[in-house]
Every structure is written in C-alpha cells, then in structure tokens.
Amino acid sequence: MAKQSVATLKTICSKVETYYLDAKLDLIHRAYQFADDAHRGQLRSSGEPYMIHPTEVAQTLADLHLDIPSIITGLLHDTVEDTHATLEEIEKEFGKDIAELVDGVTKLSQIAFKTSEEKQAENFRKMILAMAKDIRVILVKLADRLNNMRTLEHLIPYKQKMIAQETLDIYAPIANRLGISWIKLELEDLTLRYLHPHIYFKLAQRIAKTKREREKYIEEVAAIFDERLKEYDIHALVAGRAKHFYSIFKKMERRKVEYEDVYDVIAFRIIVDNITECYKSLGVIHAAYKPVPGRFKDYIAMPKANAYQSLHTTVIGPYGERIEIQIRTQDMHQVAEGGIAAHWKYKEGKFDSRSRENVTWVNRLLEWHKDLSDPNEFLETVKIDLFAEDVFVFTPKGEVKQLSHGATPLDFGYAVHTDVGNKCVGAKVNGKIFPLKHRLKSGDTVEIITSPTQTPSKDWLKIVKSSRAKAKIRTFIKEQERNRAHKLGKEMLDKGLRPFGHTLSKLEKSGELLKAAQPLNIRTDSELFIAVGYGRITTDELIQKIVPKEALEKKLEAAKAEDQSFLKRVFNAAKKKSETSNAITVADLDDVLIRFGRCCNPLPGDSIIGFITRGRGVTVHIASCAKALDSDKERKVEVQWNITEKGAIKRHVRIRVVTLDEPGFLALMSQTISSFGVNIASANIRTTHDKKAIAVFDVEVGDLGQLQKITSALEGKKGVISVERLRS
Ligand code: MN
Questions:
Q1: N or C: which end of the chain has fewer CB within 10 A?
Q2: Is 491 a known active-site residue?
Q3: Catalytic member of 36, 82, 103, 337
Q4: Distance (Å, rounded) from C-alpha 706 to C-alpha 32?
Q5: Could you read off the pLDDT of 158-213 as tens digits, one per residue?
C-alpha cells in the first residue's frame, strides 16, 4: 500500500529503472534541476523546502510505473502556477508533450471547487475532459492530491475539511474507477482523519491497542490456510491485515455498531499461481470452513468495470468469527493494486493499442459530455457511473442491504429471506407503495409487502437483477413444475392402465411398473411419474411395455368400433406429441402432452383454456366452448399459443358455405380458398330443393387470421348466402 519512503531524485530514478531498461534518466535529472531552481526559497506549510512535494509526487508516479513524461510532469507540475517559470520555457526545455501535460495539471489545479453544486458539476466536467484528452494528467493530479492529503495536517482546519471532502467526493472515486485501489484506500483513510477525526483517532487507538492480539491471530489463521492449501499442493502467499479505517468506518455506519470485534477488522488474501488454483483454493477453504451464504463473489469470471479480478468469500473461522478472504493470481493482484496503470505499456511515450481499451470509460464520458448540456445532469450521470456497481437500501429496522444497480423490491425481498422473496407482491419504498419492478435507489427504505397466496413466476426472472434472486426463483419454479408433473403423470398412468385391468398402486407395489420403466432409463416411480407428466414418456409407451401384445390388440379391436382414434393414439402418440405440444405453452409445465378438443377444434389466435385430462395430458379448448365451460374448474390450467412463425402448424377447420345453386360455384369457392395458399383436405356438397347449395370444406389453416380472411373473401363472392366455421 502506501509507498512512503522519503523521496529523492535517486529513489525516483532507481524505481524507474526497475521497469524501464533504457530509461532516459538524464531528462528526469534535468526536470528535477529545473523544478528545484524554480521553487528555490519556497517553503511548504510544514516549513519544509517546497521541492519535497514535487519529488514525492514524481515518486508516486514511478510507483505506478508511469512513463517518463508523466514523471517529469510530476516534478514540474507546480512550477507554472507557483513560480516564475512559464509554459514556453518548459516546452523549449522538455518538448510539447510535457508542456501540454503540465498545462493540463495546472488547469486542473486552478479549478476552484466551490460549495455550489453547479460550480462543482462544471469543475467535474473539466476534470473529466482533461482525463479524456490525456489520462496521464489525472494520474499526476491524483499523485499530487495524495501527497497533499498526506501533509494536510499543516493546513488550517477549514481548509483541511474542504480538501478532504473534495477528495472523498471526487478523487477517491476516480482512483477507484481507474482501479488504483491503494490510492483510493489511502485517500479515503486520510479523509476520515479530517472529516471524522473523533472516530479516526478512536479507531487508530483501538487498532494499535489490539495489535499484538491481531498479529497473533493473523499468524495462526494464515498458517492454517497455508497448511490446508499445501495438502492440495497449492503453494500460496497467504497474508492477513487489518482493514482500512474507512472501510471499518463504513461497516460501523452500515451496521450502526461500535468497533469492538477485533477479528471483524481483518481481511485475508491468498495469492496463487493461476486461475485454476484460485478456484481450487476456494474449494479447499470452503471445505475447511463454512462459507457465509451470499458472500461469495466471482470477480474472475465477471471482472469489475475497473478490470479488478478476484474471488471474494467470507467463512466462519475457528472461533466462530467471520473471515473475509480474497483469492487471486499475481497478475490480478498487480491490476488490483495498480489499476489500469498496470495494463499500460508505453511505446515511446504513447499508449499502445492494448492500453487504449482501458480508456473506453473515459471516452464514454466524453460522449456523454456531448449529449448532456446541463452540467448538473452531467455530474449526476458521472456520479452514477462512479458508484454504478451497488445500491444501498435500508430495511425498516435500519439494516443496510447491498444490491446490484437496478435492483427491484424482489431483489430486496430475496436478500432478506427466500420466503420473503417468494411471497412478495410489492413494496413500500419510503412509505409509498410501488410495484415489483420498481427500481430502488441508494438510501431508500424498503418494506416488503407479502401475500400468503403469492408464488414466483417466470416473469420475475426479467424483473430481478441479482443472481441470488434469479437462482431462488428458478429453484421454486422447477420444484413447482416437478410437483405438478408428478401429480399429472400419476393420474395419466392410472387412467391409461385401468382399461387393461391394471391399477397403478398394484403395479407400483409389485415393482412391475419400475421394471417396465427400466429400459427407459428410469430409476424410481417418482421419476417415472415426472417423466410422464412432462410428456417425456407417454402413457402409451409404458402401456405397451406392461400389457401383453395380444391383450393390447384385443382391446384395440374392441375399441375400434367406438373410438377410431384409439389405435392411432397408442401407436402414434409420440408423433402427435411433437406436432401439437410445441404449439401450446402450459403455465408452469414444460413439455407436456397436448391435444385439442374435438368439440371446438381451436385455431391459433382463438382464445383458449386447457384442462388436465385423466390419461391424456392437457386438452385445449376454445375458451367459450360449451364442453370447456362444463369441465371441472379444478383441472383448469392456463395455456397459450406458442406460434413463433406464421403457419408453423396447420390445423384442420371445417367451414360451411351456403350459396345459390349456380353453375361453377364449387370451382369459384375452391379457387377462392386456394388463393390463400390453403390446402383443401375434403369438400362435401349437397343441394337443397329450394335451389341452394351447401358446401362443407375441410381446410388446413395456420391461424384464426387466415381463416377470417378466407371467410370474408368467400362472403364477398356473388351468390354466397352465408359462411360459417363449424365447431365439430
Ligand atoms: Mn502540487
């Protein structure tokens, strides 16, 4: 973290040499000399020579492995503003590139941060623009601010608070957004010292007091981790440290507690060689210590916007304490510490193509700047992006829940408890009632409204943002589907077997059922019922396996007279299933056997309802069908057409046309129907004694719309008296 050795020209040069083999150190020497001459005689508020400040700034830039122009800019950054030196001199001496960088930093420094929000917005915009032009300007400014914060004690209290607040509002978020975590953390800790000195010093005191105890604990836990990992041949760097003051402070604020627990302020870090070992280590740790649910975060698979990668988890440690652990590779560690600077490669002072990807965020800000003319709006947008990752909301009791950006009352409900999520019907947000899809904002107080009859639905998956809520909803729906499929499958089998003198319970007891199901890769009765309920196995498939062929054929013969379709049903069940089942979606049931009621013969486009039928899956009727209205309400299920493209299925419909009996009318009718690209399966014509003709056509149409077009075309023909769709 903080690199606080006393900076000298020599330390800067030796740091630069660690990452630049052919560093042009003479330029750095010249810049140092130039700044030293310019600042000669000036003192800082601390009474020390002024040159200490630019030297420290340049050293921080070297710690960030920045290029030589950046380091030179660090040395020169205050010369134009505070001394007689001019930009022209700098350009003459060090070139245009460096002169522009110094100019950029000087201009940023001249931004007067007023309390007025509008002023701040405008200032912020300038800063972002400077960043977009050359991000090195903002990095020099960050290093400058870091050193100023480190030496803030020498200023008067009013200025301390002002600078600290500005640092917390603007510079720490920018450091975070750029992924330079050590600068962000140090800045935050320093602001705490001036904004909440009472808390800061109390924390400092307590942490100092418990130092020995803590170190002993860290040593002990690190040794345990190390040993466990070694058992699995993982050689890791395990380190523990007290958390930063600011994050402890935030935690105290969040939980509204005092700092007491010595363990609660320690975080562990495990650094391994490769990604596989990261996950392996996670497994080892979770196997040894119980993980705290909901605390695991995989930033390796899903890196943060600032390129940060790590696995985060919290486990219950040997004393029942919570241990926060980060697991990452050495590369990830470098990025975590150095942020986007760690990605940067300079080719003769310029970004290479790889580094350009890292400034896309800045480019996006530049685009916003074009779109948003109102500075306040701009600040709002930028603020939102800087804190985009999380929303913090309160429970009615004041407990804080951390949710993803865009989270809804449902996410909140599931964050409280699975049951609260499952039964959620809405929420009171800051006392007002809002629907499930309302987007929560940081600071909202949320109270979930539940109803005992509420259950999760598939639509909820589109509403929720958090993966936890998504997983819980999916689990619920799956479970519900299985239960329904189980019930349905059992009913279907029972009904299907009865005509052959079998009862399901007997077959179940004797094990015959399972034996018949074994070739279908089914291991339990329950599994079988579910498979039948889902329509993966048809009842007829199973009947064929249980009932001897002769008995089946005998039954078939007997049934033939009364039910022609029985034979087809038994042998062609699978075919039928795939054709129609895909056209209909049954609420909460996947892949179920579907048939259409012959009483009303629904067409895509008709409003429909379904009934669970004993032995035959779900029968679909037109909603107004008399038979459907008569059916048992208990068995009613919601069904929907699922036709993704026009004409995906063809349905037989019977239409009756009454015309005057004139020559050529049949040809006219057929031609009209065929002109819609519709196949006529059969036609029956009879004439009446009052000189009318009645034609009944069986046609294959795709949907209701097509039928209506045909009907009105027929009605428009000369001599046609009526056209009617027959329901049976
Ligand atoms: Mn400065």
A1: C
A2: no
A3: 82
A4: 84
A5: 989 989 988 887 788 778 767 788 899 999 999 999 999 988 888 888 888 777 88
